[in-house]
Amino acid sequence: MEDTAKVWILDDEGLNHEKEIKMYKQHNIGYKITTKDTFEKDLDNYGKLADAIVAQVGFQCPAELINKLEQCKIICTFGMGFNNVDLEAAKARNIYVCNIPDYCAEEVSDHTLALSLSMLRKLFTYNKKVKGGIWNPTDSEPIHRLSHTIVGLLGFGQIARKVANRFEAFGVKLIAHDKFVDEDVFKQFGVTSVSLDELLEQSNLLSLHVPLTKETKNLLDEERMRKLPKGAIIINTCRGGIIDEEALATLIKEKHLSGAGLDVLLQEPPKKSNELLQLEEAIITPHAAYYSVEAEEQMQTETALNVIRVIQNEQPKNIVNSL
Length: 323
Prior knowledge:
Elements: E1 5-10, H1 18-26, E2 29-34, H2 39-45, E3 52-55, H3 63-66, E4 74-77, H4 87-92, E5 96-98, H5 105-120, H6 123-131, E6 150-154, H7 158-168, E7 173-177, H8 183-188, E8 192-193, H9 196-202, E9 205-208, H10 222-225, E10 232-236, H11 245-253, E11 257-262, E12 282-284, H12 293-311
Parallel strand pairs: 1-2, 1-3, 3-4, 4-5, 6-7, 6-9, 7-8, 9-10, 10-11, 11-12
């Protein structure tokens, strides 16, 4: 039986698509997985006539590509982010753009907490010193009680709210800045709403939870990061472009900041010349906060369901560009 529809999977990281493929086969939908090496050939031979695209977040879908799609009805980003897709170009072609906004909220909030506690309690510093033959609990940077710590959340969406819930058990003071959230929501979670300047001036640990947009790109530049208290820590599990990485490295070397826990960087994987890789005070994980077996399965299933809905002439869920 010939395929009645086609989905084009753009993935240069070798992510798991088995559950999606099983669902596509059950609905008689053809598929092709394309990497950057095979992109041009596959675009001509397959992609131009695909009914749906699934794009891993590192695979760009600019207007140049979107305008070549002759039959596409939906572009699904394989995850929460969608800044890799030109939303206006898709809208102009009546193509839905959809993400999976909540598939890894638990994992990212857990990862945020893990990075935070590792930095606050200096676990990696202790580990290195002990393995180097140094047994001294008091020779690291000052460690303060968590109940004396102010944790600031930049952005207060669903992940930041889960982070707040997790931190509550440690008795920290929680503050947050998000101009799009009503005051009642902050109160519901026991979090004090503050201005951006107040957030920066008060946070001993600043955790980032905002999307990467024109407004948030390099939001944490050197001037803003210098407003943080001396010895503050920055945790980033959202997007790398939020932080000026050169400025961050400078402030860590100057000891204005005691360190950073980063799951995301501007360039992934980073160049060896990235100075943050050389700093012991920076803990860096490979954009792994999203990952668990369960989260990956949910991401695959919800992505495939959206593709199937549109091919069956139904409206998809989680549309990020209103048509």
